[in-house]
Amino acid sequence: MTPLYSFIILTYNEERHLPRLLASIRDLNAPVFILDSGSEDNTINIAQNAGAVILQHPFENHPKQWDFALKNFDIKTPWVICLDADQEVTPELQQKLRDFKDEDHQDIDGIYFNRKNYFKGQWIKHGGYYPFYLLKMIRYGKGYSDLNENMDHRFIVPGNTEVWKDGHILEENLKENQISFWIAKHNRYSDLLANEEVERIKKLRTQTLNPTLFGSPDERTAWLKNLWWQLPRYVRPLIYFTYRMIFQLGILEGRTGVIFHFLQGFWFRLIVDVKIDELIKGPQKKEDKKYAMVSPFKFAFSFLFLFVIFYYFNILFYGATSPGNHYYPFLADNLNYIQSLRWFLLSCSTQILNWLGFTAIHNGTQLLVAGKGSIEVVYSCLGLGLMSFFAAFVISYPKQLKQKMIFLVSGILVIQTLNIMRFVLLALFWSKKANRIVDHHTIFNIIIYIIIMISLYFWITKHDQVKSQGD
Q: Are strands 79-84 and 5-11 parallel, antiparallel or unpaired?
């Protein structure tokens, strides 16, 4: 029986990974083609022992390597599955491939596989990394490698695609268990990505796919890239990292996962932005180059430092003004800004409710509405973490002090105005007995973080436009 698909695998010093991948596809009895870029370990012998057809070609980047593979291997099957050596096929995906029938896919030119990505042995489930769909199975002769991408490789097919949500490819580079290897590899990747983006700035490179938010996984990625390129450099890594940690729940990964999201979502993106500026500005004097390198790191360090100071100072002060082991009566009685803020918010909320025709009172911690019930305002209700984030960012960003102070005060007033509106709505409509997956604190924080991100974007963009006009 003629096989319906072949496997193409890219390798370079993959003696640790290649046996794992070959073992996962052995029972499918499909032809295997391996394009190697000059391995110096036992990779070639492993490939030969597996009966693979082998070619060698110097590596420039992934898109060009895949383009060479698709054009130079003698593929006889109607479909080809393109994998990296550090990936493997799960038993569930093996079964789907065994059951695959070409006649059932006559109007399909490409199939997306669902990827599980591992870092230091841990499956990265959150932060936008799962589910994650990659176009890995393409109709041979129709699908091709997108040469308009320098770093984030993808295949293009002219016709319809299909997404396989069950069955996975596992991706785990065991060499990345050494963080020095991961950093060295992503330092090389940052060169490719920076060069690519500079070419896009100069209109020398365009996207092949039509960017569409509601299209295929790759069309959606193309749309998000267009959005990314419009964000101000040095700020966008912070926005992206915050988005991954808060809105895509990266914070749930635990210590190893958070390290991964910080490195991949913030550190790597920041390095790319630094290199983009180096490429745009060209050769610089030693003093100028030193300043260009220090400025973004100074901003990132200042922001993180101030955020930690503000955030934990509030927590420590709250502990010192609450009855317990570390209680300080003088602070609690004379300098308790947390209690003052809570009293102010409750007083405003109570007054608004009374204006609306309800009968409401509060005692400094609880708000009671006649006929409706009561709410208790605890520390987490006050928005101190949100204000810490906002204040640290605004203070750290390089801008005139007057502009910072106006924006900072205005932003804090808006945050607390929305907080008062929340207390009013909670007092009238929130049911404490209802079982909910997400509580009102999470909902409020998500809404406010979205508002903060949008506000910071326009504030920074306006700043950059004014600076550009002045130059």
A: parallel
Q: Which long-range contacts (CB under 8 A, 24 or more apart) does 431-434 make?
A: 432/373
CA distance linking residue 272 with residue 266, whole number of Å: 10
Tokens of 169: 């490819």
Weakly modelled stretches of the chain, pLDDT under 50: 287-294, 435-438, 465-471
The Cα–Cα gap between 384 and 381 comes to 8
pLDDT digits (tens, 9 = 90+) for 157-168: 999 999 999 889
What pLDDT was estimated at residue 33? 98
- Number of CB atoms found within 10 A of residue 471's CB: 5
Burial status of residue 284 (CB atoms within 10 A of its CB: 0-12, 13-18, 19 or more) = middle
Q: Where are the alpha helices (DSSP H) in 378-439?
A: 384-396, 401-429
Side-chain-facing half-sphere of 212: CA atoms under 13 Å: 8
Helical H segments across 26-90, by residue range:
43-49, 62-72
- Name, in order, each residue with C-beta under 8 angstroms of 405's C-beta and a sequence gap of 6 or more: none
Residue with tokens 């959005």: 227
pLDDT in the model for residue 451? 81
Residue 1: the pLDDT is: 64
pLDDT for 434 equals: 52
The 10s digit of each residue's pLDDT in 408-449 is 998 899 889 988 988 888 888 776 555 444 456 677 777 887
User: Which residues, at least 6 apart from 445, have a Cβ–Cβ distance to it below 8 Å?
Assistant: 246, 385, 386
| Alpha carbon distance 110, 155 (integer Å) | 9
SS3 at position 420 = helix
Query: How far, in Å, CA of 404 to CA of 396, rounded?
Result: 9
Alpha helices in 263-383 (DSSP H): 268-281, 286-320, 329-334, 337-355
Classified as helix, coil or strand, 135 is strand
Residues 324, 307: Cα–Cα separation, whole Å: 26
Structure tokens at 83: 């994998």
Q: How many residues does the chain have?
A: 471
Q: Tell me how far CA of residue 418 lies from CA of 349, 414, 424, in angstroms.
A: 11, 6, 10
For the chain, the average pLDDT equals: 88
Residue 375: what pLDDT?
86
Helix (H) or strand (E) segment spanning residue 245 = none
CA pair distance 391, 398, nearest whole angstrom: 13
**Residue 14 CA from chain centroid, whole number:** 28
Distance CA 277, CA 304 (A): 22
* Rounded Cα–Cα distance for residues 285 and 293 (Å): 12
Is the previous residue joined to 131 through a cis bond, with omega within 30 degrees of 0?
yes
pLDDT at 433: 58
